[in-house]
Amino acid sequence: MTEPPRKGMVRPPAGGAPRGRAQRLRSAKTRSVSSQAWLNRQLNDPFVAEAKAKGYRSRAAFKLIEIDDRFRLLKRGARVADLGCAPGGWLQVALERGAAAVAGIDLLPVEPLARAIVLQGDFTDPACQARLIELLGGAPDLILSDMAPNTIGHRQTDHLRIMALIEPAADFAIRTLEPGGTFVTKAFQGGETGPLLTELRRRFEDVRLVKPKASRAESSEVYIVALRSRAGAPRLAFSPRLG
């Protein structure tokens, strides 16, 4: 059984399992060990319960909420592009916080969401990138990326896979953001992101690394927040990597 993908809060939510009494799976006979572990985490994760209570499509919504509360990224009237948008939690947050135009893209199908435009396709395809800008009606003010590959547990391979997503997302942000715009992307702690961070610091006024409270403690994920893009920056020139 394949595990459901992980997508992609300022304070701990009040909902979820009762404190001091973890919920358990009623039947685990037909599930793999990894699936049982994932389901147990879901049952006892207060962010999962809070997302359900508030109508968010994923617990990842609280990651963006915390980042936005800290940096004030989602300005009223902004154009927002969401890369790797399934199942749509970040689209929901962008809309409820006042974005005027919101467009997302993902390889997976995404249930329609009022006032958001969603493409199903490969973001690394230049034609999909051009279509995304067209649907937004102009250059984005904010580009979000919660894209992440399926990991296999081999550090070097997993790093190559995540960088193969981060680098084209960063390139897209550099080429298309409005001057003063912001780029947010998922990365992994311990990965060789040094060259990427150096490039982003040349092209943005401020670059931060953030681990939201809604990121699970055992997860190595971290978010790169690149603030206030500089005008006239050239295309990023990264060396080819294995996909």
Report on the structure:
With 243 residues, this protein is an alpha/beta fold. The chain has 2 domains: 21-54, no CATH class; 61-229, Rossmann fold. Helix content is 34%, strand content 18%. It has 7 helices and 7 strands. It has a 7-stranded mixed sheet, with helices on both faces. Strand 4, helix 6 and strand 5 (182-188) form a beta-alpha-beta unit. The two termini are 24 Å apart. Mean pLDDT is 81; it is low at 1-22 and 237-243.
Mean pLDDT over all positions: 81
Question: What general outline do the C-alpha atoms trace?
Answer: globular
Unreliable segments (pLDDT under 50, ≥5 consecutive)? 1-22, 237-243
CATH superfamily caption of the largest domain:
Vaccinia Virus protein VP39
Q: What characterizes the major β-sheet?
A: 7 strands, mixed
Number of discrete domains: 2
Biggest β-sheet: strands ordered side by side in the sheet: 3-2-1-4-5-7-6
CATH topology (fold) name of the largest domain: Rossmann fold
Beta-strand percentage range: 15-25%
Distance between the termini: 24 Å
**Helical residues, percent:** 25-40%
CATH class call of the largest domain: Alpha Beta
Notable features of this structure?
single chain, 243 residues, alpha/beta, Rossmann fold, 2 domains, seven-stranded mixed β-sheet, disordered N terminus, disordered C terminus
